[in-house]
Amino acid sequence: MLYQLSRSWAKLELWCSAFLALMITLLILLNVVTRYLGAALFWVDELAIYAMVWMTFFGASAAMHYRTSVSITLLTDAVPPAVKVIIEKLVDLIVFAFAIAVVWFCWRWFSPLELVRAGFDTVAFQGATFNFIYAEPTSTLGLPKYMFWSVMWFFAFGATFHSAVHLLCWPVREAEQ
């Protein structure tokens, strides 16, 4: 059941990645057309970059579920299957530790409890924490950057969930996937 939930979440992440890839293509096409017409929209470049970043993080999290991340298999190809399973579980443990670290770093970076304590007053939050995450605007869009940086939360929780499922579930045969 956990594996099925992880697979559903990964499919959603891939759908989001595909949508963002389409969005990037359309934004770049819009940029080409507007520059050709002499009326460049500079915010389009920035939005395309943020869309690419979001696409990458969603895709990376989904790749953790499908185990399609770039890897070097020299060692696992040379050992017996029982040892290969142990190595894969060790890798799952390392990936899980990395994912937990990303959650912790997001918690420290966004400081949600401190923001609540400040009554969602970003000026009071900045004065109390010297953390200006909620005050920095994007260069051309004029939107708060934390909105775009929030993809880190999606990645952190997706990576944690996928790696936890891999740790808890023994390798699923390809026929079961």
Automatic annotation (TrEMBL):
Tell me the domain of life. Answer: Bacteria
Q: Which key words are in the record?
A: Cell inner membrane, Cell membrane, Membrane, Transmembrane, Transmembrane helix, Transport
State a GO cellular component annotated for this protein.
plasma membrane
**Segments crossing the lipid bilayer:** 12-32, 47-66, 90-110, 146-170
Q: Which GO terms describe its biological process?
A: C4-dicarboxylate transport
Query: Does the keyword section mention Cell membrane?
Result: yes
> How does the entry describe its membrane topology?
Multi-pass membrane protein
Domain Tripartite ATP-independent periplasmic transporters DctQ component: start-end pairs: 24-169
For this chain, one GO molecular function annotation is: transmembrane transporter activity
As for subcellular location, the record says: Cell inner membrane
Q: Which InterPro entries match?
A: DctQ, TRAP_DctQ
> What task does this protein carry out?
Part of the tripartite ATP-independent periplasmic (TRAP) transport system.
Task: Tell me which family the UniProt entry assigns to this protein.
Answer: Belongs to the TRAP transporter small permease family.
How this chain assembles, per its entry, is: The complex comprises the extracytoplasmic solute receptor protein and the two transmembrane proteins.
User: What protein does this entry describe?
Assistant: TRAP transporter small permease protein
Which species does this protein come from? Parasedimentitalea psychrophila
